[in-house]
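Course assignment 3, question 2. Fill in each field.
Student: A.L.
Task: Predict the tertiary structure for the chain below.
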Amino acid sequence: MASLRPTDASVSRRDLLALVAGLVPATLLGMPVPTYAQEADVVAENSVAAVQQFSFDLLSEQMRELSLGVYESHPVTEGFIDGLNYDDYRKIRFNDKAARWQDGGSDFRLAAFHMGWLFPEPVRIFEVANGVATEMVFSTDDFEYLNDLKDRVPDHYALPGVAGFRLNAQLNRPDKWDEVAAFLGASYFRALGRGSAYGLSARGLALNTGTQKGEEFPRFSRFYMERDQNGGPTLTIYAALESPSVTGAYRFVIEPGAETLMDVTCRLYFRQDVVELGIAPMTSMFLFSEKNRAGWDDYRPNVHDSDGLRIERADGNVIWRPLNNPPRLTGSYFSETAPRSFGLHQRDRDFASYQDVGARYERRPSLNVEPVGDWGKGHVRLVEIPSDLEANDNIVAYWIPEDRAVAGDHREYSYRLRWGDLTQNAGSDLAWVFETRSGHGGISGVEAEKGTRKFVIDFKGGLMAVLDGEAEIEPVLNATGGEIYGHTLEKISGTDIWRLVIDVRANADAVVELSAYVNGFDQRLTEVWLYQWINA
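Answer field:
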């Protein structure tokens, strides 16, 4: 089980990222595909845009009524779209001249992704103005078909829908329209802060992830775009979510910036019982870092889109859980009540840590989920999947409510998504985990004892930064499934970093759960470092 994203096994994650960003160059790799006759009776000029009354409440009621019936999928099973394969799809580009909202009065431009290949079901897009939704009609005239593909595509053909869309805004420079967000495939979407490069994704909903029942992937089937009538910097997107187990109505209010914000409200209506419901899910990639790179023959010191899970608890304390690429599928559950936030972060922003001029991992955005209102009791779940390729998304995180969702339930959740560098708060009293390293346990130069491991945790900033090396502070350590048989804590001379070193011995082949933080002067001085070591 290498990835939780439903993709063709021959397609790399980097290929998908490039396709989303519109960066894949045209190639001559097309395979022979039957040529379809032009469907002359279906042309863009004769298509009629659907018009309907619209509001979020109307959409919600529609999805509630839909949940009372049986789920139906609607893939396109005939015409040239059904014949498109991966190589064909690489030869399709949206025509930038056809981007919507170029007439002024908007801080956004909209472009569409073509149907076909991994995207057989149509996604319909509407524009909302004054309570009325009018469908955006797309045709083959809106796309460029390169090389031999253009001879197999009918002219002026009205497409039954699109695969998704991307939004451009003046994110980094006032003279350039940069991509800021994209919605493509199932309920996946991603966004960028200023200076970011695409990395992790979010999803509308996670259902039965990593369970024996098997994961279900809901999809956004319709989108409704409402531009700010006052010409402001926000765009409101409404979406209809459908799957065998649940329907939903979503609202996203998007504001690009140094940190791009998405205020999300979802209303969910359940057709069936759900084994595990995942709210505000996010998906990322972690291959290796300083703590697990010994087995990788790679010139790069780190390869990951995210390096840790950060949880800010209701009392203001912060948990930092470095990510793993484990030897087997693992799931970690963090019990919380009304957390302030949780998210997958890329803390290391130094190019020297990655040395990859193509992937630019130091620019991958972090993503924080900030619940609105009281989410009550539940768990933040972290799923880590073994992977040997950076093409695979092998990290998933989401919120699990305490009460299981059953058929007939109606639930509503609101939260803010924050995309960008999300650098550490310079004014925080808590020192944060700057780096985690690990290696064989015991003393250097002596043969390592089997079943032992050394962990090195560097804490940076906070009140500890101004303390001298003689300060009376002490670590608070805990281990389950093993024992901590040695530790040291000292300040690295000439820096504001304190280094905690712990030696751990596992109980047989146990999974060892570790925690550490530093106390002093009657208060907690650091984040809580958590780690899961599988002694395999």
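Instructor remarks: Confidence is low (pLDDT under 50) at residues 1-14, 20-46. The two ends are 18 Å apart (CA to CA).
Grade: pending
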